[in-house]
């Protein structure tokens, strides 16, 4: 298979500025060197705009221009349940690659079954919490025998469902169907976010590892993994890992645990998290503010989410309707509701999201929005502030990353992008 003939490598930044663009280009050229002349049709699978700071946009551009026009190159963003990349987002992330090169993943329609992970294995890795087999289906383009090479590009970073994002998650969830998306989200939720975030070998990861070993051996797949951060919005690539084997993912995990996890000496009484308006347009995405800080906020504390671009709850109408109907009201509420709510049982990823998005009453969550009304926000279980009022007091332009003391003495902890990290009170571990 072609992926075994590519050169493999692990490249680390030599200082806090990370790996520069030229070094990334050279690494990609080196990796492709053994196979480049034999390629006729390549599929690149980057994340969508919600992972803009992965630097996958730059990598995808470099790959495209290295291979095209001698080779046909298609781009399949790993949307999962997210909305398609808009033209404006495409230009920002993927530069001059023609928008027409994009293949849109429609998670409910465009997938083909490839098998399942057996019930016995699922029961074992979930410690008996889930006892059913998990069906797998992936986007039909991944199974197109005309592709000589499939390159999965993306960032390894703490994640609320699987522990550490990317690797085969980009394929199975990012380009997967309802069965696997629903099952993995619910598996992660019932196992507990606090038990898996920032870790490698979670139950969900073990399920995907099994599927990677047994269900996709016919796909000429290789992984290009990054570890990044973005202080002040400027992307720094601290690691680049290219290779099909799991060991490259494990090296990326170790680096991400160093670069993307912040350990705090004391719990936070108040955290203020900013959601970039272009990147975060729904609570489905924006609730990363909750996921990534829940192990840092004190009991009885508050999380204020500055969300200027959030104008909906779900990424599609069906999920948006379920969130509006049931709200973010806690783990026990969702588990009880599932017993008599067939619409929620048929959308377990939404049920899992409702669990993830609640603090279970441990701390207060306040959303400051422009486009959602007080009635809408409070209707799903959050507190509400008008965005302009909240931003006047907690100005993203005036606050620095980490601890801040306001003029009246209020102490807050500011996070400009929750998607890039995980914050943990040392005393909770």
| Major sheet details | 6 strands, mixed
Strand percentage: 15-25%
Helical stretch count? Answer: 17
Class from secondary-structure proportions: alpha/beta
| Integer-rounded radius of gyration | 21 Å
- What proportion of the residues is helical, as a percent range? 25-40%
In the sheet with the most strands, the strands line up as: 1-10-9-6-2-3
Distance between the termini: 43 Å
CATH superfamily of the largest domain: LarA, N-terminal domain
Instruction: Give the overall silhouette.
Output: globular
CATH topology of the largest domain, what is it called? Rossmann fold
Give the overall average pLDDT: 95
CATH class of the largest domain: Alpha Beta
The tally of strands reads 18
CATH architecture of the largest domain: 3-Layer(aba) Sandwich
Low-confidence stretches: none
Tally of discrete structural domains: 2
What would you say this structure looks like, in words?
With 429 residues, this protein is an alpha/beta fold. It has 2 domains: 2-259, LarA, N-terminal domain (Rossmann fold), CATH 3.40.50; 262-428, LarA, C-terminal domain (2-enoyl-CoA Hydratase, Chain A, domain 1), CATH 3.90.226. 32% of the residues lie in helices and 23% in strands. The protein has helices at residues 21-32, 56-67, 87-94, 119-125, 169-172, 178-191, 193-196, 203-214, 246-259, 283-286, 288-291, 317-326, 331-338, 342-345, 348-356, 374-379, 387-393, and strands at residues 9-12, 41-45, 72-75, 111-117, 134-139, 149-155, 158-159, 163-164, 221-229, 236-242, 261-264, 268-274, 297-307, 364-369, 383-386, 402-405, 411-415, 422-425. The protein has a 6-stranded mixed sheet with strand order 1-10-9-6-2-3, with helices on both faces. The longest helix has 14 residues, at 178-191. The N and C termini lie far apart (43 Å). The mean pLDDT is 95.
């Amino acid at each position: 298979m072609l992926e075994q003939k590519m050169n493999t490598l692990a490249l680390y930044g030599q200082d806090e500025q990370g790996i520069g663009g030229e070094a990334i280009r050279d690494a990609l050229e080196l990796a492709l060197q053994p196979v480049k002349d034999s390629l006729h049709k390549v599929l690149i699978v980057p994340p969508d705009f919600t992972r803009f700071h992965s630097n996958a946009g730059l990598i995808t551009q470099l790959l495209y221009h290295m291979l095209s026009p001698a080779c046909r190159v298609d781009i399949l963003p790993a949307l999962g349940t997210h909305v398609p990349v808009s033209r404006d987002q495409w230009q920002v992330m993927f530069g001059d690659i023609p928008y027409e090169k994009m293949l849109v993943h429609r998670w409910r329609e465009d997938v083909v079954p490839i098998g399942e992970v057996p019930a016995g294995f699922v029961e074992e890795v979930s410690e008996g919490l889930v006892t059913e087999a998990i069906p797998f289906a992936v986007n039909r383009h991944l199974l197109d025998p005309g592709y000589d090479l499939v390159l999965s590009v993306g960032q390894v970073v703490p994640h609320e469902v699987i522990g550490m994002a990317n690797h085969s998650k980009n394929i199975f969830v990012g380009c997967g169907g309802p069965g696997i998306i629903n099952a993995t989200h619910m598996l992660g939720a019932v196992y507990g976010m606090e038990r898996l975030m920032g870790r490698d070998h979670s139950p969900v990861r073990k399920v995907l590892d099994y599927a990677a070993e047994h269900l996709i051996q016919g796909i000429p797949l290789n992984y290009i993994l990054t570890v990044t951060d973005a202080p002040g919005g400027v992307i720094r690539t601290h690691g680049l890992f290219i290779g099909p084997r799991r060991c490259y993912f494990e090296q990326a995990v170790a680096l991400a645990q160093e670069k993307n996890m912040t350990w705090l000496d004391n719990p936070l009484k108040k955290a203020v998290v900013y959601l970039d308006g272009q990147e975060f347009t729904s609570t489905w995405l924006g609730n990363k503010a909750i996921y990534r800080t829940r192990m840092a906020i004190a009991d009885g504390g508050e999380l204020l989410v500055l969300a200027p671009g959030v104008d909906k709850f779900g990424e599609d109408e069906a999920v948006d309707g379920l969130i509006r109907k049931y709200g973010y009201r806690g783990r026990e509420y969702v588990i009880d509701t599932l017993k008599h709510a067939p619409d929620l049982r048929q959308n377990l990823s939404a049920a899992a999201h409702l669990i993830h998005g609640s603090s279970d009453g441990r701390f207060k969550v306040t959303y400051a929005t422009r486009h959602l009304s007080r009635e809408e926000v409070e209707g799903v279980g959050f507190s509400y502030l008008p965005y302009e009022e909240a931003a006047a007091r907690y100005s993203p332009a005036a606050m620095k990353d980490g601890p801040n003391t306001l003029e009246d003495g209020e102490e807050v902890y500011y996070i400009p992008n929750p998607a890039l990290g995980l914050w943990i009170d040392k005393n909770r571990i």
